[in-house]
Specification:
84% of the residues lie in helices and 0% in strands. By secondary structure, it is mainly alpha-helical. The chain has one domain.
């Protein structure tokens, strides 16, 4: 017996929804695991009192591991590389957090507040994207330009030691990373992103940069 068009559409919709929910669930599970692993490597870096990484070493390590992760995201090697990437980023984060704790009079408060705001922002924006069901794909072009511009300005601020520009860049990254969380979550929900490894990397990078940017903004008054 031939199936009616309505039945076919209904079945296709259910299948798509199940696939989307699976990607979203796997993404959140992997994201939680990578954040935990990153926290462990950050703790190791702090325990051994590692010095902050050179900016070029950080960029080479990050983009090298990112490239490897994206190339292998459809295989088991992708999982290995995503943990290598997030573990490396944890190692770069540990010495930075140590500096805030050591040299700021209210360093503990700055770190915990930044962490709390980061967690609340991620949970709030993700919940909004899921519950509202809105399509934020229109933000893709704006985010690409904004993130690239903030990255280039950030390099200028670091190379020429411009703390004022650094604060502007941090503000730009807070907005851009918040937008990226909305964009990527929406992308998963609407079927634009079907690989949970690449989705995890995107959300992890958003959280990482959001936390660092908040650290810089909240710690600026204490540094002064």
């Amino acid at each position: 017996m031939d199936r009616s068009p309505i039945s076919v559409i209904s079945t296709t919709t259910r299948t798509s929804a199940l696939a989307t929910n699976k990607v979203l669930r796997n993404t959140y599970l992997l994201l939680g695991a990578t954040l935990g692993f990153s926290a462990v490597t950050a703790g190791i870096a702090m325990a051994f009192e590692m010095r902050p990484f050179n900016i070029w070493m950080t960029l080479i390590g990050y983009y090298g591991l990112l490239f490897a992760t994206m190339k292998t995201r459809n295989s088991a090697w992708g999982l290995a590389f995503v943990f290598a990437l997030t573990g490396f980023m944890g190692l770069t984060l540990g010495p930075i957090v140590s500096l805030y704790l050591k040299f700021l009079p209210n360093g503990y408060q700055v770190v915990t507040t930044s962490l709390g705001i980061t967690a609340a922002t991620f949970v709030g924006l993700s919940a909004y994207a899921v519950k509202s069901g809105r399509d934020f794909s229109f933000m893709g072009g704006f985010l690409t330009v904004g993130i690239l511009g903030a990255f280039l300005l950030g390099l200028v601020a670091v190379l020429f030691h411009l703390p004022g520009l650094s604060l502007v860049v941090s503000g730009m990254f807070v907005l851009a990373m918040s937008g990226l969380i909305l964009f990527e979550t929406s992308n998963i929900i609407h079927g634009g992103e079907t690989n949970y490894i690449s989705a995890t990397v995107s959300l992890y990078v958003s959280i990482y940069n959001l936390f660092l940017s908040l650290l810089n903004l909240l710690g600026s008054s204490s540094r002064n």
